[in-house]
Amino acid sequence: MPEFRTIKPTTRFPHIEAPSKKKVFPKFRIDLKHLPEGRKWKVGKKYFIGLHVKQIGLMDTDFEKSVEFDIIGIKAKDNPKKTNSHKKSNY
What we know:
By secondary structure, this protein is mainly beta. It has a domain at 36-82. Helices cover 0% and strands 29% of the residues. Strands 1-2 form a two-stranded antiparallel ribbon.
């Protein structure tokens, strides 16, 4: 498994000029039918989710820089400390 790259949060929301005092990380939401483990997980704890994805879009303009995927597979791990495929991260 490839090593994870640490994501650095921003202090700005897209399309809003005023900086936020809160660190802003990229987010995603998934239905519990696809990730039933999430029901047992605790808010504020850290977990690993591996995604098998298919790229379906790319937006690289002056206004938006993003990539879009269909999630076609998912793998979850309860405790991130049980694996050695992840470098120490500040997330």
